[in-house]
Amino acid sequence: MRWIYSSATALIGMILIGLAFLVSDPQTLCEGNMPAPQTPRPGYTAATFDVSRAHLPLPAARCTTTLPEFDSTATVTVVDWPAAMLIPLGIILIGVSLLALKSDRR
After folding, report:
1. Cα–Cα dist 38/99, whole Å
2. 49: which residues sit within 8 A by CB, 6+ positions away?
3. Which strands sit side by side in the sheet containing 48-53, from one edge to the other?
4. Are the CB atoms for 102 and 79 separated by under 8 Å?
């Protein structure tokens, strides 16, 4: 019976880890954190904004602002820390479930 609880706990831990990446939206993370490239002179071309997921083991977004007229680019990586806290919680749940499963075998 303990293996059922251990399996369910491990599944919940894996779901928490997956939710950490699904909950964080790169567009939402970048809204207040868009970098500002160097200040151009009056009459500049409008800036382009690029938002993508950062290639990190954490839920993060890569926010890039480009002024094509000046070849000026500014990039910032924003980590969603509240969602990132779900990852250690999921890992702890998986570890506890595996330890409980191991202790069941005698």
Report:
1. 54
2. 30, 34, 63, 64, 65, 66
3. 48-53, 60-67, 72-79
4. no
- Total Cβ atoms within 10 A of residue 1: 6
Question: What confidence tens digit (pLDDT) does each residue in 24-68 have?
Answer: 888 888 887 777 665 556 666 667 788 889 888 889 999 888 877
The structure's pTM equals: 0.70
C-alpha closest to that of 8 among 97, 105, 104:
97
What is the Cα–Cα distance from 44 to 22, expressed in whole angstroms?
Answer: 37
Q: Hey, what amino acid is at 6?
A: S
Report the 10 Å Cβ neighbour count for 101: 16
Residues in the chain: 106
